[in-house]
Amino acid sequence: MLNIPNTLACRPLMRRLALLSLGMLVGAGCTTTRPGQAAHSRSVATSSTVASINNALASAALRDHGSTADYRLGPEDLLQINLFNVPESEGGVTPRRMEVRVSHEGVITLPLLGDIPAAGLTTSALERSLRERYDRYVRNPQVGVRVVEYHGQPVSVLGAVRNPGVFELTGPRTLVDLLSRAGVDDKAGTQVHVYRQGPEGRESYMIDLLAVTTNPELVSFPVQAGDVIHIPQAGMFFVDGAVGKPGSYTLNRPYTLTQALATAGGADVELAKASDIVVFRWGNGAEPERIHVDLDQIMEGKASDLQIQSDDVIFVPMSGFKYFVKRFIGGIGLGSLPAPPPL
User: Fold this and answer.
1) SS3 259
2) pLDDT tens column, 7-37
3) Fewer CB atoms < 10 Å away: N or C end of the chain?
4) Cα 154 from chain centroid?
5) pTM above 0.70, yes or no
């Protein structure tokens, strides 16, 4: 369910772009674009941003290795159990110190107590369980549990990462540690999803990828055996018309219209009709919503900057008058003519 083939996911969107490009060519008159321009797809996720994220993850992983207090015991972990208020010479039927291994069924077997569930518990939770059970045999039992040997426990990392797969936990590990091992891909979005099976059913957590690199609490988010960590691929937005670099761009962070245009090389000041930009946005219907935007008004602070959504197509039309001036008048050396009035 998490791994949809990219070719299947892209076909409906490319078909929409082809139809939209044809519609713009038929109805725009002088605002035509080069055929097929909108359907040209290239990923331009900023490699410097991804590199800085991976560097920050690696640095954070070196500083934080997880807390043993958060570690969940698993099969084949070797534990040392101490009964501190039982003298060595008076151990009787239960020794003061013993080493036991968690079985494949997730239990440990102790004198007097028999089989005790241990897998999935932290050491402090197991200590509480043992204190309750020893209370029948020892007055005010003081119990300590320490992991002597960690056994590998699987955690899956999927999605827009460079090295997807199953990683074996050998001790306490945090989210940032797993992400640094897997490496964030250039197509990654800004969210990390963690799915786990808790005592009351399936649990899910959504964490901001950029915040992971700066927020100490998120850096220390503990992962557990059986967790599935998924980084969804970022959506795309498309820019066409009178801009410097028309094409498709990865929506790897929140973008406003002005930021999206800047990413696409900016509106062509000599040709663009900035007051009549159209954003095509698909909802549940077959036809896109047309959102008309006046870039001049935004730049003057008279209108709010539109937030771009996944699959948005931004079309910057060409001014017929500007095109005429540039192509015909500018071409015969009449650059000293008065500037044309704004449309």
Assistant:
1) helix
2) 323 334 444 444 444 333 333 333 333 322 3
3) N
4) 21
5) no
